[in-house]
Write a structure and sequence with these properties.
about 180 residues, alpha+beta, OB fold (Dihydrolipoamide Acetyltransferase, E2P), six-stranded mixed beta sheet, five-stranded mixed beta sheet, 4 helices, 13 strands, about 15% helix, about 45% strand, disordered C terminus
Length: about 180
């Protein structure tokens, strides 16, 4: 039986797709390991003092001044309904872009940058502690599972648009030389 060129190309494309490597930043929350696509992560910074914002959504921990920009910071523990825990020297803020807005996510710790084959990722099963809509899939690594987050779905469209302009959260706020002040 003769294989056509079209069938060969199709098989090569399928095998290339299954061997595609994804780069992820892995982090921990409540003893579970999560991953974000590295291209979504702008930077990872140590936990710093937050300016609390009155009447903001419960999962917004506050805002920070990051090189002159006011950035809203979301507590992923709160967002996922996990028990509160005091920040420690391992706590980090993962700065990402979500729907055109720069947002920080507070995580317990950041582990490593991973390169994993896309073939190791399976669709998200029904999960207990994290709403399934936040989960893009689960990566099967040697002796552990990595929950892949879809940052676009961590918040609703309305929440994203409210956070798109931190000045709406903190009217009159001006970030100068590491300090938030009111204009």
């Amino acid at each position: 039986m003769r294989t056509t060129e079209r069938e060969i190309v199709k098989r090569v494309e399928q095998s290339n797709r299954s061997e595609e490597l994804l780069q992820l930043v892995s982090f921990n929350l409540d003893n579970e390991e999560y991953g974000l696509e590295i291209l979504r992560v702008q930077e990872i910074i140590r936990m710093q003092g937050l300016t609390r914002v009155p009447n903001s959504p419960a999962f917004v921990d506050g805002v920070i001044n990051l090189r002159g920009k006011v950035i809203p910071v979301i507590g992923l523990r709160k967002r996922f309904g996990l028990a509160a825990r005091p920040n420690d020297k391992q706590t980090r803020i993962v700065v990402t872009e979500v729907s055109g807005a720069i947002i920080g996510f507070v995580v317990d710790s950041v582990s490593e940058v991973l390169r994993i084959p896309s073939s190791t990722i399976e669709p998200a099963p029904r999960l207990g502690t994290v709403n399934q809509e936040f989960v893009a899939g689960v990566a099967k690594l040697d002796s552990r599972l990595l929950i892949l987050l879809d940052v676009e779905r961590v918040m609703t469209e309305e929440e994203n648009s409210a956070l798109a302009s931190p000045q709406e959260l903190l009217p009159g706020a001006v970030a100068e030389e590491g300090v938030l002040t009111h204009a």
